[in-house]
Amino acid sequence: MSARQQQMGRPGGARFAQFKLVLLGESAVGKSSLVLRFVKDQFDDYRESTIGAAFLTQTIALDDTTTVKFEIWDTAGQERYKSLAPMYYRNANCAVVVYDITQAASLDKAKAWVKELQRQANENIIIALAGNKLDLVTEEPDKRAVSTADAEQYAQEAGLLFFETSAKTAENVKELFTAIAKKLPIEQATQRGMRGAPRAGVDLRPEASGTQAGQGCQC
């Protein structure tokens, strides 16, 4: 059922729209942990690396009449999967690019993903930059390798939403996805139906076939 059909079946002018969201970033920055916290409000200290990508969904009620459904592709961060990323961010309405605030190199990788999205993805894509593992620097400030001010300045210059998050404590996780939802063209989606809904997933494991939902990468 399309977003338009679902919206039309709701009472009193309620609006419902679904959007494709992709997560990108280096391995072990906590992409899957962020999604797990957002979708199931759970956190696992030890998670296996994602193979290819995992697919999840979650809805957000922005107010009494507006509901946004995210169809989420959580991509693997290992370098060997990088060339496959375009099949996941193609036609995406929004993206979360994640880095680890205790690893400066992960921000460099995040910046490279942002450039790639801005060059090759949907020209209207909403991009959020998430500095994850805030809990680590709360406990031990000396672990911070990327200052909030530097990352925020970069995000402003690149036109990105910006949050520092902790998948472990849930700090700013819901706020991150809510901010993205508020930036999306909900009115257009409910009027026209979503054109950017994700296609069936592609299993990237050579020994299997069909839609694949791998386990999340390390937190």
From TrEMBL:
GO cellular component, one term: plasma membrane
Record's keyword terms, sorted: Cell membrane, GTP-binding, Lipoprotein, Membrane, Nucleotide-binding, Prenylation, Protein transport, Transport
SMART domains attached to this UniProt entry: RAB, RAN, RAS, RHO
One Gene Ontology term of the molecular function aspect: GTPase activity
Compositional bias ranges of the Polar residues kind: 209-219
Domain of life, per lineage: Eukaryota
Matches recorded under PROSITE patterns: RAB (PS51419), RAS (PS51421), RHO (PS51420)
Subcellular location: Cell membrane
Record has Zinc as a keyword: no
A biological process term (GO) from this entry: protein transport
Region of interest called Disordered, as start-end residue ranges on this chain: 191-219
Protein's membrane topology: Lipid-anchor
Protein family according to the UniProt entry: Belongs to the small GTPase superfamily. Rab family.
The name this protein goes by in its record: GTP-binding protein ypt5
Origin species: Aureobasidium subglaciale (strain EXF-2481)
